[in-house]
């Protein structure tokens, strides 16, 4: 059922993932173990030019949650940076200035544009940074991030609002609409229809000449940050030359884990 956003714009009312999917998030443990077992294969992923990558954690998570991913990207030769802002307690507006300073510090320290990899809420931050500081951002990769449509369709809505002090219904339309639109830099959204935290439809961007979706079959929301198929896809996207963008090749060793690309 469409609902009024408060500015005359009709949005489809979406539901958060079911309780069954939420409980199934426990399978993230197996996704992590799969990455450990397949680490020799993962190290065969495409390698890029070693440019800086800033990794942003999800709601309630800290840099500890992204440590396995950051270690993997370092093994591939990238200059990888944690966000260094403690536990992510939410707040798109509250965190904007801090994130801008962190991005600026990485950009100035390396002298290069920075790729942003954001998990869940971290991906929303990444898209916001790209909108407001595109001169410092090389590209963005989001993992299960709710940035388009009814972004309240998440099982973390109440937690976000309580911790951040920001009501999702009060997010300004002039901020919400651009987050779900075309980015000024190449963008990739990685998500799963079996996400138990975020309704996958809120992570589905409009494909274009420099933006695409990569759907990972049967992945959990928590597992997106450690799932071997997700890690391979991240490595592949980061390996693209600066300023270039080509569709993701689903024929690699984890091809079975990716759904067919759709518009």
Question: Layout of helices and strands, plus pairs?
Answer:
Elements: E1 2-4, E2 10-12, H1 19-23, H2 28-37, H3 39-42, E3 52-56, H4 67-75, E4 79-81, H5 92-110, E5 114-119, H6 121-132, E6 137-143, H7 157-164, H8 173-179, E7 187-191, E8 211-215, H9 228-238
Parallel strand pairs: 3-4, 3-5, 5-6, 6-7, 7-8
Antiparallel strand pairs: 1-2
Helix pairs in contact: 5-6
Can you describe this structure?
This protein has 263 residues and is an alpha/beta fold. The chain has a single domain, classed as Rossmann fold, CATH 3.40.50.1820. The protein is 32% helix and 14% strand. The protein is built from nine helices and eight strands. A six-stranded parallel β-sheet has the order 4-3-5-6-7-8, sandwiched between helices. Strands 1-2 form a two-stranded antiparallel ribbon. A hairpin with a 5-residue loop joins strand 1 and strand 2 (10-12). Helix 5 (92-110) crosses helix 6 (121-132). The longest helix is centred in the middle third of the chain and has 19 residues, at 92-110. The radius of gyration is 17 Å and the shape is globular.
C-alpha-based Rg, rounded? 17 Å
Give the low-confidence spans. 1-9
Mean pLDDT across all amino acids: 93
Beta content: 5-15%
Supply the number of helical segments. 9
CATH class: Alpha Beta
Order of helices and strands: EEHHHEHEHEHEHHEEH
Question: How far apart, in Å, are the first and last alpha carbons?
Answer: 22 Å
Which CATH architecture? 3-Layer(aba) Sandwich
- Give the oligomeric state of the chains in this entry, treating copies of one chain as homo and distinct chains as hetero: single chain
How many discrete structural domains? 1
Helix content: 25-40%
- At CATH level 3, the topology is Rossmann fold
Q: Major sheet: size, sense and barrel closure?
A: 6 strands, parallel
GO molecular function, one term: hydrolase activity
InterPro entries: AB_hydrolase_fold, Lipase_EstA/Esterase_EstB
GO biological process, one term: lipid catabolic process
Organism: Rhodopseudomonas pentothenatexigens
